[in-house]
Amino acid sequence: MRGNAGLAARDPCAAAAMLARSRNRMQPELRGRLHGAK
Predict the structure, then answer these.
(1) Which among 3, 4, 30, 27 is positioned nearest to 16, based on CA atoms?
(2) Alpha-carbon dihedral sign for residues 16, 18, 21, 22
(3) Distances (CA, A) of 15 to 5, 6, 33
(4) Whether the Cβ atoms of residue 12 and residue 19 lie closer than 8 Å to each other
(5) Per-residue DSSP letters for 1-38?
(6) Is residue 14 within 8 Å of residue 3, measured between CB atoms?
(7) Does the pTM of the predicted model rise above 0.85?
(8) Cα gap 24→12, rounded to integer Å
(9) What is the dihedral of CA 29, 37, 20, 2, to 10 degrees?
(10) Most buried in the list 10, 30, 35, 37, measured by CB within 10 Å?
């Protein structure tokens, strides 16, 4: 995660996208609930 911290400082958009991808991978059921509620 140290490399990602450096990337976040240089490219916040890419870091946000990476974080979103990891979150989607780890919690697909949570994503489904959030999208279903909206």
Answers:
(1) 4
(2) negative
(3) 8, 9, 24
(4) no
(5) -HHHHHHHHH-HHHHHHHHHHHHHHH-HHHHHHHHHH-
(6) no
(7) no
(8) 18
(9) -80
(10) 30
Query: Who contacts 4 (Cβ-Cβ below 8 Å, separation ≥6)?
Result: 15, 18
What span, in angstroms and rounded, lies between the C-alpha atoms of 12 and 5? 10
Query: CA-CA distance, 38 to 22, in Å (whole number)?
Result: 22
pLDDT tens for each residue of 1-38: 556 566 556 777 777 887 888 776 666 666 666 666 55
